[in-house]
Batch of 2 targets.
Target 1
Amino acid sequence: MTMPDEKIQKKTIPFIQAKKEKKEKIVAITAYDFPVAKIVDECGIDLILVGDSLGMVVLGYKNTIPVTMEDMIHHTKPVVFASKSALVVGDMPYFSFHLSNEESVYNASRFLKEAGASAVKIEGASKKRLKLVEALVEAEIPVMGHVGLTPQSIYHFGQFKVKGKDIDEAENIVQDALNLEKAGVFSVILECIPMELARIITEKLKIPTIGIGAGPYCDGQILVFHDLVGFSCGYLPKFVRKYVDIHEVISRAVRGYIDDVRKGKFPDSDHSYHLKSEKLDELRKKEDQKRGKKKK
Ligand code: KIV
């Protein structure tokens, strides 16, 4: 049995919020499984989002729309198991919070009760969404907001592109962030907006802003894990910095394995189990005797 490590402090929402006051950057990342969550947690990440980007980077969908509650709970559990220190936030997938508040609060509660996350994230800031945030907070479910480019609105937007480049849209995004703060979110993701706009929002809000494609003035940053390690297939947005090309590293390893097996170089004696010589002699003798009997 593994005992909880008392030396490792679990990061909390007040801890994340205090970082804004202390002007310390919040560093967040996505994860969807145990091994990746364990690595990023051990590296000292503050917050892990089990994003519905799962659909695109792990499940191979073209957008996040098909992701289900069951997918999200299934992937949030191992991330929580692996995270000794990071705060884990579960992302509510499309249509898990669009019908009644009652059903939405129930779905959100599953992230806390079944998967062990500490908070949920929801996209958007419509009037109905703000009421839902209030209902979630009332049910003791901490909520992270998400404005700017909200990928679940892909069919509405037509394509993934920068939001808030014209004044009306920029003003709406500022208002959305303010409304979410008032409704009770503990922080807000700003996705794909001009850095100058993100700066204005960050200065106006008391809660932390966490940017993705929103420039350096946010209180924190988040990236999709697969993007920053070069493990995602297809288009990489301009805002991603690829710190390693893991696709290349894995391809090299797998090509080496294929080559070695085909040439008989793997497995070798070092990567095999062995019989002690006296046991081998005994086995050979027995097998020879069996063969002798059969010949008679
Ligand atoms: O689903 C996700 O990974 C997200 C981040 C991009 C913020 O919402």
Target 2
Amino acid sequence: MLPRCAVRVCHVLVLVLCLSAAEDFDWTKNDRGSFYYGTFPAGFSWGAGSSAYQTEGAWDKDGKGLSIWDVFTHKKGKVQRNETGDSSCEGYYKIKDDISLMKELKLNHYRFSISWPRIIPTGIKSDHVNEKGIQYYDNLIDHLLESKITPIVTLYHWDLPQVLQEKYGGWQNISMVNHFNDFANLCFERFGNRVKYWITFNNPWSVAVEGYETGEHAPGLKLRGTGAYRAAHHMIKAHAKVWHTYDTQWRAKQKGLIGISLSGDWGEPVDIGNQKDIEAAERYVQFYLGWFATPVFHGDYPQVMKDFIGRKSGQQGLGTSRLPTFSSQEKSYIKGTCDFLGIGHFTTRYITQKNYPVGRSGSSYFTDRDLAELVDPRWPDPGSEWLYSVPWGFRRLLNFVKTQYGNPMIYVTENGVSEKMLCTELCDDWRIQYYKDYINEMLKAIKDGVNVRGYTAWSLLDKFEWDEGYSERFGLYYVDFRNKNKPRYPKASVQSTQLHMEMVTEIVVPTVCTLSILLSAIFLMFLLRRRN
Ligand code: NOJ
């Protein structure tokens, strides 16, 4: 998620912080906080998620076209150990098997994504629609519904058709807006009678920053200081167009909802008494979640992004800001294009103010923010390098969404933790702890009045983790990738708690205890009476 270089900087900063300022630093924020006993609202939806490229495999089967990830992973040196998603979990062939896992977990919903090149091989609808691809998603949706599991469907989870990248430069080009709209329209036409929850984009931040700024993700471009802003601009326009298409052409008939899924780490000021740190932390969140959420809810980029990128562009001698602008018609077209907001959240950072003068460091999304990210070395970090378990950050982020965007309907579309080591014993007790703590913070946020309607554990299965290959396992189910059949095994997080049960038993446990004490007392009284 965070570029590796940034993580490294983070670690160095942590060291420096420990050596130089350990005494001043407020470590008390490390406290887990107390457990809140309560219940989730009736109808709250529990689910798990996946995405097409990460799980389907069958990369060249049944008429599927190439995606930018197929091409990227086949180049040497792009992914750890040069792994690819060619076969991944073979999810394409395991619809029934995987749905029985979902039933084991008692899921209310399953979040998956549609591979654009699987149903439109070149990405351009007028070229060709691949009926075999359509058939696959038809089957998946039908089987889910038969099992009373609601499909939540993402249209774009990063696998752009390669032809669109080669012909037009992918999200650098405004023509993606219409091609994406055609693809979305086809999905509404063919699946919309059964799918009632649509997500246009998954985590466009990653697409923009890692795809077009750092180049760590496909298509691997390093257009520092401009590429990410341009890609984001076009994705926001594409999102708005697809929302309007659904709203005007399909909503009345299909009665579904359409939103966007944004990811955001929480940013906490290092020193809450220091105004500069407070502003830097707010900037961190605005440059992350706010970059996309503010246009979608308020029609334009966060003021702080316009100010900082505009000022730095001026200092570079550029005539206009590197952050593109929306016309006033575009602003009103984009504003309000969100029936629900998907939130993907995994971790938190401490933030402090740090100036990056233009001349010395050149321009980039990262230096535009004028801040430094820090982590508390005592935060548990069982999995990915960037993923520290900081449950209280989740509650703060959810409250931020409530206050900034008018308390929208929220579905948590991703939350979970990976594991570094090979979890051969399947004893992922840290994952149980992570889920328990994060879910409880979400419950506190609901008590605060945040309108959270559903929660999606990320992810159902271990799967291809982008540039990290198969080295980071997020699954509730372990997948043996060395075995051709890709068998799935439940980890302890499934076996011992059955995720769903864990979410509700916290209030049952004290009740059972209380009951047992009461029953014992009654029994004791009965014995004493008989004696007398
Ligand atoms: C967000 C991405 O949407 C998802 O595909 C990925 O697995 C998680 N981050 C974990 O890195």
